[in-house]
Design brief:
The complex is a heterodimer of chains A (295) and B (389). Chain A is mainly α. Chain A is built from eleven helices and two strands; from the N terminus they run H-H-H-H-E-E-H-H-H-H-H-H-H. In chain A, a hairpin with a 3-residue loop joins strand 1 and strand 2. In chain A, helix 2 runs antiparallel to helix 3, helix 2 packs across helix 9 and helix 3 packs antiparallel against helix 8. With 389 residues, chain B is an all-alpha fold. Chain B has a domain of 260 residues. Helices cover 66% and strands 1% of the residues of chain B. The longest helix of chain B is centred in the middle third of the chain and has 27 residues. Chain B is globular. Classes of the chains: A mainly alpha (295), B mainly alpha (389). The interface between A and B is large, with 49 and 54 residues. Chain A: It is found in: Cell membrane.
Chain lengths: 295, 389
Amino acid sequence: MTVLIGQLFTGVSIGAVLLLIALGLALTFGQMGVINMAHGEFIMAGAYTTYVLQQVITAAGWSLLIALPVAFVVAGAMGVLLEMLLIRRLYARPLDTLLVTWGVSLILQQLARDIFGSPNVQTRAPELLTGNIALPGGITVANNRLFILALAGGAVVALTLALRVTPLGRRIRAVVQNRDLAAVSGIPTARVDRMTFFIGSGLAGIAGVALTLLGPIGPTMGTNLIIDAFLVVVVGGIGQLKGTVIVAFALGVLQATGEYLTTLSVAKVMVFIAIVAFLQWRPQGLFTLRTRSLA
Amino acid sequence: MTTVARDPVAATDPAPTPPTRPAAGPSRHRYRAAVGFAFGAALLFAVAPLLLSDFRLSLLAKYLCVAMVAVGIGLAWGRGGMLTLGQGVFFGLGGYAMAMHLKLADAGPGTMPDFMMLYGQLDELPLWWRPFASPWFALPATVLLPMAVAFVLGSLVFRRRVRGAYFAILSQALAAAMVILLIGQQGTTGGTNGLTDIQGFFGYDLDDPVNQRMVYFIIAGTLLALLALARHLMQSRYGELLVAVRDSEERVRFLGYDPATVKLVAYVVAAGMAGLAGALFVPAVGIISPALIGIVPSIEFVIGVAIGGRATLLGPVLGAVAVAWARTALSERFPGTWTYLQGLLFVVVVAFLPGGLASLIGLARRRDDGEPRPSRLSRFRPRRREGAA
């Protein structure tokens, strides 16, 4: 029983990381239907932001807290720049966007290599997040995992609220549901797209901050994450956040269980097979947005 | 584009050419193709071996293997609109099948390949390695194994109309899964190192330059044969149908064809080509490893195709060779510069020159082969997520 709960928590914490990475992607992919391969590099930017801030502010706890908003803005600004310079011109060609943003990600990786050097760098975790908490029943839970879970939860709640109640959120939802109708109703869709990209990329930055607690920071860290994140978005279905949330945790638990029963490599393959099988059942993902739009 | 829907027989029918497309006449095509192939054969079989040193020739052999993959991608992506980011999987399956056989042949009957003794505490050859001892199994497997995997994945995915970006991500995830599996099973696959140090090729010593030349000639001949096959497919009625599916899958479905089958054929053929390329890559280079088949190399297969001209026959080949050559020339001396250049090439060519360099120098004679340029109007229809980009 203890093992079972322990595994469940491992799965949930893998899911929380997946969720943080995929959340911004779900937003941009959902709204604009474009795949941003440079999303992983925005995560990297967030992680390096944390690293740089820790060089300036040596107190690990404070630098981590300050890194959260700063990374959000840094990654968000990069996203807006990318949207304005390239993605905006390619909306009609989603597959080409994928390749173009891959090119951008190559450039950003090399840039990181030139600025910070090829070897991985490490940040110090704050005291508070290094230990474990012992739960009743002999289960121990790592503090940093708990923090990431809370961060992921906070991001989901904040994003949901932003989409539900703010004027910008209302506009974003309108554009996702029916872009043409939104446009004729006077919503500046181009500006809304840009804001969506800002928020989505900013969330990647926050994911980057969280990842510094789990491992080293390196120029290629984004590439390894991005595919899992895309799988979450593809399986979750686009246009709604709840699919992303459910699938992130489901895949996390699936992978943890697979890893426990077999090995990491076999678990990854199992997850892939499960995804292909799932898409047989629901090719559009878990939840799809039903609208009367013909597009 | 819509010519296809109106007149799908045009390419195979020896009737007088339609007045709108004088260059597309079958007889002229045949004539040009024959000259082109003769020229290509002369270049590959006579000029290159005479001019290049043994070292350069073996490099060219490697590039030509990449070009074979590119021919397949040109078919699946350029003509079929399926952006496959996982061709490395098929390249790897072919490569590993060949390398497993060569390793077993090197070791001799009854013994195990060297690396297995090193990593694995294995007492005997794993069961799934055994059939590869026979060339009668291993050689067909280099092509059939990738085709089988592509068939299974393709038929599952295309039938459920998973397409466009979804398909691209899935194919990429396949590459990721394959690499993780290979690395994880180090004892039987050689892990990160892959299968290295391959000495012989069906009794010929690969260290001998004469035999390296022979491998080059085999590769050059295979590439020409694959080009002929691709050309035949593109010119056939099937080729027209494939372009039609790329441009409007729904219309083709309403015309009574099954787009899933049409796409599946191109995908499986492309996988077979990649498998063959991987199989020939092994004797040419002497190694196959996860680093050669993962996510990054799989995308790099695509870049040559994009740069050369995805929808043309020769564009992918020339683009792939050019990119591979530029990588060798630049990456050794300026590794950072090459990465920047590669990224920049991706961005500039795909964003601003979707037809590739072929559209510049006029290799794309038929206007309907080029990707449609984004019109101002298309800005307002961004939610179309059909397979065709």
